[in-house]
Write a structure and sequence with these properties.
4% of the residues lie in helices and 49% in strands. The protein has one helix and 32 strands. A four-stranded antiparallel β-sheet has the order 1-32-31-30, with no helix packed on it. Strands 2-3-4-5 form a four-stranded antiparallel β-sheet, with no helix packed on it. Strands 6-7-8-9 form a four-stranded antiparallel β-sheet, with no helix packed on it. The chain has a domain at 24-72 and 283-390: Thrombin, subunit H (Beta Barrel). The chain is mainly β.
Length: 390
């Protein structure tokens, strides 16, 4: 036997003796069955808030109106339930909530409502003529909401007191005589400075202009503004809530994702996407941005310069994304499976089907994904039950 052959055989033996990495396994902790017939549920269940006791989920629309349910984090038991049978309009499908201490604020059709997170008691509600779903955290005592009043042909940004529901107008914009206008996606930059998007559309031609604005609350004036999306006649504009990371203000406008310096108002970079984003939301984690688009791809961009780090095959109409322990989690709306990716390389680690998917065709994972405050539990919904995994 030659020396080279001996070394080759030895290296094979050493490689074979190395400990193999353990396969990643999700262990179910509890299951909370909520709906007998998954065919009546569709994509209408979303996790909207968590605290140290559990998770609040929303059924966006049913025969008896929208429903809020709080499930215990350790066993899935229903802690409280809120239902408004007078409402026959759905809650917004990609619902955002403001949580401050024990208060939970949500946009309902025609109103904004505040609940006690522990008991589910309705603390106050205010009429909102536009029924806009865009809420934003401001301080521990206040939140922001953009309102578009079609009857009065004006749009404005409200500051809402979390304790009482009292409101203060921060900025008002009148609609042009021959068109429509919208203020949306408010976001807090710091206590004395906020940002939001403004869009106007001409009647007849639908010619659309979309801008972003940075507003100084002390001087009560716009200090920076810029183009959010090129002029078009499709109504395309900023479509998701802005994200703030240090001095980076991140916006998604149709098929473009861009970054603005919050102090100077200068656009730092802009990345042209292959498609738009409908069902998901951008995720910022550890200096990178993750985007799940309608082309069925997942993209990782550098927060510093917008450079593409990697892209990988995901699924169309995906859920929001979660980052935890070096992995990215998301549910594919196209196939109803949980996808788990390596955060560094973008490789698919695992695809997981709902436990009953092989036996009941309607029991597949919906675009429902969330974690508790510690990151110990992963919450998923299969059309019948909310399930918690560790």
């Amino acid at each position: 036997m030659t020396r080279a052959l001996s070394l080759f055989i030895l290296s094979l033996l050493l490689w074979h003796c190395q400990p193999k990495p353990k396969p990643f396994v999700l262990m179910q902790s509890w299951r909370s069955p909520l709906f007998l017939d998954p065919r009546l549920v569709g994509e209408s269940i979303y996790p909207i808030a968590t605290d140290d006791a559990g998770v609040v989920v929303a059924r966006l629309l049913g025969n008896q109106g929208p429903v809020l349910l709080k499930l215990a984090g350790d066993n899935g038991c229903i802690l409280w339930q809120y239902q408004d049978t007078s409402l026959h309009q759905p809650l917004y499908y990609n619902l955002e909530a403001v949580v401050a201490g024990s208060r939970l604020v949500l946009p309902f059709p025609g109103s904004t409502r505040c609940f006690d997170l522990h008991s589910g008691a309705l603390l106050w509600q205010i009429a909102t003529p536009g029924g806009e779903p865009f809420l934003a955290s401001y301080t521990k005592d206040y939140c922001l909401q953009s309102i578009n009043d079609k009857a009065k042909r004006e749009s404005y940004v409200l500051r809402i007191a979390l304790a009482t529901g009292d409101t203060t107008r921060l900025y008002t914009q009148r609609c042009p005589a021959a068109g429509k206008c919208f203020l949306r996606t408010s976001v807090t930059l710091r206590r004395d400075r906020i940002a939001f998007s403004s869009s106007s559309m001409e009647l007849g031609t639908n010619q659309t202009q979309s801008k972003w604005l940075i507003f100084d609350l002390v001087d009560a004036q716009v200090i920076h503004r810029g183009m959010a999306y090129r002029e078009n006649n499709k109504g395309w504009c900023i479509s998701k809530q802005g994200l703030v990371n240090n001095q980076n203000l991140l916006w998604l406008a149709k098929d473009e994702f861009f970054c603005v310096d919050t102090e100077t108002g200068k656009e730092r970079w802009r990345y042209r996407l292959a498609r738009d984003m409908l069902s998901s939301c951008p995720l910022v984690d550890d200096g990178y941005v993750y985007l799940a688009l309608e082309d069925g791809q997942l993209y990782k961009l550098s927060l510093t310069d917008g450079r593409l780090i990697w892209q990988t095959t995901f699924a169309r109409t995906p859920s929001r994304l979660l980052a935890h322990a070096g992995r990215i989690y998301g549910v594919g709306g196209h196939d109803g499976q949980l996808y788990i990716f390596d955060q560094t390389k973008g490789q698919l680690i695992q695809k997981v089907e709902a436990p009953n998917a092989a036996y009941y065709p309607e029991q597949y994972y919906r675009r429902f994904i969330g974690t508790d405050q510690t990151g110990e539990y992963l919450f998923l919904f299969d059309g019948n039950s909310v399930r918690a995994y560790r």
